[in-house]
Design brief:
The structure holds two protein chains of two kinds.
Chain A (H helix, E strand, L loop, with lengths): L1 E12 L2 E14 L4 E5 L6 H8 L8 E10 L2 E2 L5 H7 L4 E4 L13 H12 L4 H14 L5 H4 L9 H13 L5 E5 L7 H18 L2 E6 L2 H7 L2 E6 L2 E7 H6 L4 H9 L45 E4 L2 E3 L7
Helix pairs in contact in A: 3-4, 6-7
Chain B lengths: L6 E15 L6 E15 L3 E5 L6 H8 L7 E6 L2 E2 L5 H7 L3 E4 L13 H12 L4 H15 L15 H13 L5 E5 L7 H18 L2 E6 L2 H7 L2 E6 L2 E7 H6 L4 H8 L2 H4 L4
Parallel strand pairs in B: 3-8, 3-9, 6-7, 7-8
Antiparallel strand pairs in B: 1-2, 1-4, 4-5, 9-10
Helix pairs in contact in B: 3-4, 4-5, 5-6
Classes of the chains: A alpha/beta, B alpha/beta.
Chain lengths: 317, 269
Amino acid sequence: MFKIENLEISLIKKNRIDKVLVKNVSLTIPDGKIISLVGESGSGKTLTGYSIMRILPSQNLKITSGSIYFNDLNLIKLPEEKIKELRGKDIFMIPQEPLTALNPVLTIEKQLAEIFEIHTNMSDDEIKAQCIKLLELVKIDNPIARLKSYPHQLSGGQRQRILIAMAVALKPSLIIADEPTTALDVTIQGEILELFLELRKQFNLSILLITHDFGIVKSISDYIYIMYGGKIVEEGTKEEIFTNPIHPYTKGLIDAVPYISSVPKTPLKTIPGYSKISDFYCPFYDRCSLSEENCKEEFTYTFINENHGVLCRRIAK
Amino acid sequence: MQKNSEIVLQCININKTYELKEGFFGRKIKITALKNINLTVYSKEILGLVGESGSGKSTLGKIILRLIEPDSGKIIFDNQDITNLKYGEMKKIRPKIQAIFQDPLSSLNPRMRVIDLLREPLQIHTKKALKDIDNEIALTLDQVGISIDDTFKYPHEFSGGQRQRINIARALLLKPKFIIADEPVSSLDVSIQAQILNLFMELQKVYGFSMLFISHDLRVVRHISDKIAVISKGEIVEFGETQRIFDHPQHEYTKKLISSLPEKHLVNQ
């Protein structure tokens, strides 16, 4: 079980907080569940995901408050050597671009074997057997031959499968997948999502899925968090979010995408403006059609039932 | 059936192969990018071209724009064979065929102010005075929802959605008969995608252009297109009215594409 509490990530300039990019984010990832973190570019979803592994993409970004628990361990207080042991073993991150995530000058075998060499005491033969097993697990054809391949010899879908094989190699508790299907073709997307579901079942994995695609969210998540402007604006089970969305942003996002069931050639509902970091308490204040003066001031995050929470002044108690 | 006179663009038997060298002394291998492509676009029609990466959909767009030469085949635009037109003759046609690409930032010269980027096509293709040009720009910008007062800035000072609006305005300025839009919304955020798709549908009513809308996103193509051509490995495997394609797909590949949409595909376990 992973639990993020009141996480704050800031941009630091000259030893001072210049901008707070992620504010007061709390989320829970129970064992064996697929949790989606949905948001547009700049919402802070990727930063939140990276912070669990304590790798932020720039030196100037720092976790300025909050805690991240892995069972009873507070990852934020952990010394660097300890967190290194956890990375790859207990928590694995699949980055967005499957080609750049693999080393172009090493064979697939080298890259897979490395994980076992670092984290286990297996012999070379055992490692090789494990590698073949992994490729079979992620359904790569002809695994023995594929071990000798270099990343550029594989298709995008195959590369993503290799990364997933690496991810499950040491049976981690959590896989963080950042837009795992965005770079892939539609037909391959479906296959990869199916693979996630299968592996979840087999290993009781937790998956944190970072995405902007509501189609994918709808098809595989158990629980959904929606982020906007660095804050969680709504959370809930899939049923709650899709049948009873409350936050104007969530509603806007769901309506903005053409679905296979929508009426062609009709105007799509839009959210006016574009996203930027807001100075007001409600991050959506500038774009919201229902905003009022008191949305600028602090109000409480409210749960309307045990499966559904929202950050909206209209609901706040 | 639509009358012959309404045809805006026709691709007849277009073939294109690329040659790749393998290794250092390399034997050459041929890769077929397009095979016997036949496509007809009528006036005021949006034709969606759907396919996956490497299917040849962008190559076809570039061939129509005459940015790449086909190995064989003909492109008939506005009842004129433009396949072998010389540079000067083609220049006369260019204003009538405009293009909008995926990445709105790289399609705009970063060293030019937006106003100059918008003036350029009118200065090249018309002999109008600057004042008239600016008037026209203001009118077109109004249609895409940008104020001309903002255009004295550089492209990087705009958001992604605004940049794509600028590209659309730039394409519309010459009142084209035909627009090729290659993945025009796929680099934009979801909430911005909807704004741009709505804009295309509105503008198409106002300006009455035909459009080839190239995309990998079936849901987007279904929403905006009158007809759809499905392309796979360089061949058009299915063509027809949008509704028909989605209700009764014939080809195995089309069926696979439709069934792999996340909403159709998986049920949570």
